[in-house]
């Protein structure tokens, strides 16, 4: 499923107003960043192919917000993560 998501997202889009820059911090200390159009929160992280589980939540640090699977269809813009965001992953 993850390679399919990565293919569906394609290459990093150009830096234009509708594109968000997202930096994701993984539990192992690794971080990955890229630009996304108005994709959903979980598609962005799943496309990076780092996690071996789909049981996780996305968290912003300031102000602390938890985006659980109940928010997985929410777009980056709707989540208030546009034009730039840092997300932390919490494994369940």
UniProtKB/TrEMBL annotation:
Annotated UBX domain residues: 13-91
SUPFAM superfamilies in alphabetical order: Ubiquitin-like
Keyword Ligase: no
Claim: Nucleotidyltransferase is one of the keywords in the record: no
Keywords: Ubl conjugation pathway
Short name of one Pfam family: UBX
Domain of life of the native organism: Eukaryota
InterPro entries tied to this protein: Ubiquitin-like_domsf, UBX_dom, UBX_domain-protein
Protein name: BnaC05g29450D protein
Organism: Brassica napus (Rape)
Name of the encoding gene: BnaC05g29450D
